[in-house]
Amino acid sequence: MGNILFLIGITLLLGPARTFAFFARKQKWRGSAAFWVGILLILVRWTLVGFVVECYGIFVLFGEFFKTIASFAYNIPVVGPYLAKALQAAGEKAGANDRAHKDLPV
């Protein structure tokens, strides 16, 4: 249920054409395939494996957003700097520096 609502939310936020273009991009084929395979595995009751595969797909698809989120997270009292540092590192592992937000849908 959450997967379907996640896809509906992205579609409502970006629109159907941009959502399809986002998932169908050549640079994102690995993340899109992992995301859809994860959903399929969850539907055939391999929930743990499906969840892990789907998380990998989300990390590949949306990893470049982690640096943007890190800049906002820095302002959270007490845990903000630590959380921002972790998100910054995750964004670098996802290749945010390489792409430099060139393929963001919005």
UniProtKB/TrEMBL annotation:
Record's keyword terms, sorted: Golgi apparatus, Membrane, Transmembrane, Transmembrane helix
Record GO cellular component, one term: Golgi membrane
The keyword Transmembrane helix is assigned to this record: yes
GO biological process, one term: endoplasmic reticulum to Golgi vesicle-mediated transport
Compartments it resides in: Golgi apparatus membrane
Spans traversing the lipid bilayer: 35-62
Membrane topology note: Multi-pass membrane protein
Any Pfam family matching the protein: Got1
Family annotation (InterPro entries): Got1, Vesicle_transpt_Got1/SFT2
Statement: the UniProt record of this protein carries the keyword rRNA-binding: no
Location (main, coarse): Golgi
Family: Belongs to the GOT1 family.
Protein name: Golgi Transport
